[in-house]
Amino acid sequence: MNIQELTSGLAQSVRSSRPEASIEAMREAKKGLLDFTAASFAGRNDSGVEKLLNLIEGEGGVPIAPLIGQGKKASPSQSALLNGFIAHALDFDDVHSDVRGHPSAVILPALIASAAARRDGGRFLGAYIVGVEVMARLGESIGRHHYEKGWHNTGTLGAIAAACAIGYAEELSQEELERAIGFAAAQAGGMRVQFGTEMKPLHAGLAAQSALFAVKLAQTGFGGSHTALDGKQGFFSLYGDLEKAESTFLSNWGAPWRIVQPGLWFKIYPFCSAAHHAADAIRKLVVQHGISAGKTDRIEVVFPPGGDAALTERQPETGEEGRFSVEYVIALALHGRELTAAGHFNNEPIPQNIQAYLPRIHRIYDAEIQPDPQAVPKGRFTIVRVFLSDGRVYEARVNCPMGAPGNGLSEEDIKEKLQLALQGDERKAASLVTAIEQADIQSYLSHI
Amino acid sequence: MNIQELTSGLAQSVRSSRPEASIEAMREAKKGLLDFTAASFAGRNDSGVEKLLNLIEGEGGVPIAPLIGQGKKASPSQSALLNGFIAHALDFDDVHSDVRGHPSAVILPALIASAAARRDGGRFLGAYIVGVEVMARLGESIGRHHYEKGWHNTGTLGAIAAACAIGYAEELSQEELERAIGFAAAQAGGMRVQFGTEMKPLHAGLAAQSALFAVKLAQTGFGGSHTALDGKQGFFSLYGDLEKAESTFLSNWGAPWRIVQPGLWFKIYPFCSAAHHAADAIRKLVVQHGISAGKTDRIEVVFPPGGDAALTERQPETGEEGRFSVEYVIALALHGRELTAAGHFNNEPIPQNIQAYLPRIHRIYDAEIQPDPQAVPKGRFTIVRVFLSDGRVYEARVNCPMGAPGNGLSEEDIKEKLQLALQGDERKAASLVTAIEQADIQSYLSHI
C-alpha cells in the first residue's frame, strides 16, 4: 500500500477486519462494554443530563434509540450525544494510553445509535474492537504535541474512530467509508480548556453524534473528499504530524488488537486518570502510616515532565473541577474521604477546610528519574512525598495504578462497579451482565 | 481592557454594540440579506438538498423554523444546518475579504433558527452586523496561515461569529455569552480538502448549527469555559496566532462596521471568488477582441503568490469541482458559455471538449508585480494573457472584480439576482424585497 494513502488504507483495514475471530479481543470488548455500562449508570443523574434532556425534548425527534438510565428514547443523533455525555460525565469511563483519551465513551454511544445495532447487533462487539483500534492508532500517529498543544483527543480523534466503528457495523462500501472518514474529520473538534466543566464530557457526545452523521451522509450519497486524512492539507497535517502518521498509522493492524494490548484501562476512581497514580500512592501512605491532614506540613508530588498535563486545576472550587486536580485528590484522602465515591466530584463547592489545605501540596517535575519499563501510560510515574509535622518523611511511588492494564480490574471488579452504579438493583445488573456475556445486543439495548 | 482577555472582551463588545444606530451598516445589512436570499433561492434545488432533507425527515423534530425555498419547516437545529448548506451550495453567496470566507451563509441561517428572530426579529439586522464584525475580526486575527494551512474559515470561524450574532439577538448575559463563545470554539471545524464537494457548503450549515447549539447550551446553564479564546491552549493558539489576536482582535470595534468597510462582496458568478478577477478579464478579452477557444494556443493566468490558494482544481471533472478551477472558468468563457449561469457548476460531468481544452491554461506566480492599492482582496490581482494562433497576444488585468466592494453591485443588481433565482416569480420577489426594506423579519420569514 502506498503510505500516502492513509484514508483509503484505513477504510481497507477496517473493512477487511475480522475481530470476532479473536477470543481475547472479544473478551476485552465485553469487559469494555460492561465497564462503559457501569460508568454510564453511575453518571446517569449528573446535573448536565437534565439540561441536555430539556434541549433534546425541545427539539423533538423520532424516539427510537435508548438513553442510558433515563427510561426513555430519543432520535439516534440525540442518543449519541446524550449517551456520550453520560458515559464520560464523571470521568469514570475507560481510557486508553495510545489514545490519551476516552475511546468507549465515543465509540459505544455511536454504535448504540446505529441502525445496524438496533436491527440485530451481530457486528456490534467487532465494531467496537475496530473503533478502539482506529482511535488508538490515531492517538499514536497524531503525536504527543496534539494533546499538549491543547486539543482534547477524545473529541478530535473520536469522530473518525466512531465513524469507522459504525462503518464496520453497517458494512459500508470502501467508497462510502472513505467519505465517512472525511465527513468525520471535517467535524473534528474539542479543546482542553474545557476540562473541569460539563463541556468536557460533552465532547465525547459531540464526537459520537458527528460520527453518526458522517456515516449517514456517506450512506445517502452526499459528496465529499476520499482523501481527507492525507496530504499537506489533510487531517494529520492540520491537527498533528503527517510524517509520523505515514510511517506508523496502519502498520500491524490488529496484531495484536489494541483493545488487548496495551488494552483498556478501567477506572476505580471517578476522576482523571492522570491523578490515579497519586491516588494509589496517598491511599497506601494513609493506610500504612496512619497519616492525616492535621499531621502534615507539606506534600510533594513528583511527575515526569508533562505527566500532569491533564491535571489543569491546582485550586479547584468545585468537585467537578477537582476531577482534574491532583491536589484535591490528595487532600480528600488526607481528610479521610473515600476516593472511589462519585459524590466528591460533582458540581458542589469544595468544603472550606479542604480548599484551605490545597496550597500545602506542590508539584515537582523530574526528568532524571527512570520510568519503569512496565509503566502505564508508558513513561509515566507519580511519587507522593509527605512531610509530617514531627519531622518524619514518607514517600510512595506508583508506576501502574490500579485498574490500568497490567494491574487491571477483573471481570468481577467491574461487575461490582456496575452493581454499585445501579444502587443495588441486582436484577437489572444481572440482566445486563448476562446480555453482555452472551453478546446479545438486542437484550442489552432493552435493559439500558 | 486586559489584552489577554479576548473572550470576555469579545462578549463585552458584542453586548455593548448598537449597530442599529448606523444608517450605513443597516443599509448594507439589508443588501446582505437580499443577496443571501437570492443566492439561497438559486441553490434551493441543488442535489445535496434532497439528500439532507431525507436525513432530516428520518430524524423527525418539531417543525418551527423555515427551510428556504422548500415550502416546509424543520427543527431550529435542522433549519440552521440545511439553510447554511442551501445558501452556500452554489458558492454564489457573499464573501468578505477579512474573513477569507463566507459570513452570511453561516450567520443568517443561525439567526433564522433563533427563537428571538422567530418571535419578533427586532434585533435581527443588528445581530447580523455584529456577526459579520466578529467573523471579520476572527479572520483577520487568526492570521493568513490558518487558511493556507488547510482550514476552511467559513467553518472554523463561523460558529463563534454566529454564536455572537444569536447571543446579541437573544440578549445573552455577559456570563452566558462567554460560555457560548467557548461552546462554539470547541466545535470549530472544516477543512479545505472538502473544496469541490458537497461537504464544502455543508461546513456553513454545520457552523450555523453549532452556533445555535452553543447558545442553547449557554441559556440552559450548561457549564463551560469562560476564556476559551485566551491563553496558550485557547482557540487562537490552537487554530492560529494568539499574539496577533491580542494586538488586533478587538481594537476599534464597529468603527467603521466591517459590513461597511471593507464590506461584503456580492457575487455575480456562482463560483469561488478567487476566480472572479480572471472571469472579468477573460470576458473583457472575448468581447473586445472576439477571441474564442478555436483561435487560441495558450493562456497564462498570473497571480500574486498564494492568490489562487482557494482554486484547488486544475483539471475538474464536474461543474461542482469547476467552482474552484480558474482553468474551467476561462475555458467556459472561451467556449461562449455565460459565466453567470449556475447550470455550468452543478455535479454533471464537464463536456469533453472543454475538459480537453484545460491543459492549455497555465498558472504563473509573480511576486514582482505591484498590487493596486485599491485591490480587493488586499494585495490580489489576476492577469489573463491570451496567445492567439496567429501570433497576436492580448492581456487584461483585474484588481477589483465586479461585485467586490469598490466595484460593487447596486441594490438593483441584487434585486435582479433575486428575480433570476426565483425564476420569474415576481410576486414572491416583491414580497421579499419589501420585507427586507422594511426590516420586517416576521414577513421575511413567512416568505422564504
From TrEMBL, chains A, B:
Transmembrane segments: none
Domain MmgE/PrpD N-terminal: 12-243
Residues forming coiled coils: none
Occurrences of domain MmgE/PrpD C-terminal (ranges): 269-423
InterPro entries: MmgE/PrpD_sf, MmgE/PrpD_sf_1, MmgE/PrpD_sf_2, MmgE_PrpD, MmgE_PrpD_C, MmgE_PrpD_N
PANTHER family documented for this protein: 2-METHYLCITRATE DEHYDRATASE, 2-METHYLCITRATE DEHYDRATASE-RELATED
Family: Belongs to the PrpD family.
Protein name: Catabolic enzyme
Protein species of origin: Bacillus atrophaeus (strain 1942)
